[in-house]
Amino acid sequence: MGRGGSEQGSAGPHRDEIPTDDVPIRSAATVVLLDDRPDLHVLALRRTDASTFVAGYTLFPGGAVDDGDHDARWGDLSSGAVGALPGMDDPLSYRIAVVRETIEEIGVAVGIADEEVAADLVARRHDLESGAVSLADLVSAAGAHLDLSGIHPVARWVTPMPSIKRYDTAFFVARVPAGSRPVVDGREAVHAEWCRPADALERWEAGELTMISPTIAMFQRLASWRTVDEVLAATTDAPVRHVRILDDSTTPVRFEGDDDYDAPGTRATLGWVWLPAGPLEG
């Protein structure tokens, strides 16, 4: 099934069907920003050590979907949102969250073609983060709109129990806007760097980086691709792969079809990835 398919269960159950405890499951969105430098690079962040969730871990820009991401005005203020997110309601809100969180967290405006408007939105990043103003208000006041056609869904992960926080997260890939210079907010993210996916995995294996399975899975898949164009083309009509793991942070992720997918000790996750392996696999 492709990302726009109708078989909702093929990328996991609906939110209401996911086992839970006293910790509510919140909607969230993460974006893996890509660039050719000249080969494929990914923007990786390090989360602050003061965080109450995955402190000090390497991850990608993103965060929880908030009320403003559901604003009814987004139907007129955005275009180009492609396909449903299997098992997840209001797919537009996840894409809006990607744009907002990326502005707030690293000062990069995805989906805004007008460079002056993009710069104005970035200049208000702290107001957005504090809730002093909404992204819909800023986009409307600028007479602009968001083009979401370049934001491609590639995975879904749900935080397992037990956890102090749980998220139902849509993962996307997107090309970084030309001329962007990511600058971390210093509150949630304290470091940003462009890296080759294979290099990031080598540093993780050496113990230099700490990551959890959703991040590891993205680096594993991206390490087999050569260019941004190849990755973006591969997101269309790719089959969903359920994910298994041996350990959440110290071993590679297993995808359906892998020889060790059912190896002793592995267990199923609430994770589904539909970015396939590329020509460099193996």
What is the name of the CATH architecture? Alpha-Beta Complex
- The radius of gyration is 18 Å
**Helix and strand sequence:** EEEEHEHHHHEEEEHHHEEE
Proportion of helical residues: 10-25%
Structural class: alpha+beta
What's the total helix number? 8
Tell me the CATH topology: Nucleoside Triphosphate Pyrophosphohydrolase
Shape estimate: globular
Largest sheet: 10 strands, mixed
Mean pLDDT across residues: 92
Assembly form of the protein: single chain
Task: Please tally the β strands and state the result.
Answer: 12
> What low-confidence regions span 5 or more consecutive residues with pLDDT below 50?
1-9
How does this structure look, described?
The chain has one domain: Nucleoside Triphosphate Pyrophosphohydrolase, CATH 3.90.79. Helix 6 (197-205) crosses helix 7. The chain is of the alpha+beta class. It has helices spanning 74-77, 91-106, 115-123, 125-130, 135-141, 197-205, 213-222, 228-234; strands at residues 25-36, 40-47, 58-59, 62-64, 78-79, 146-147, 152-158, 166-175, 189-195, 241-245, 254-255, 267-273.
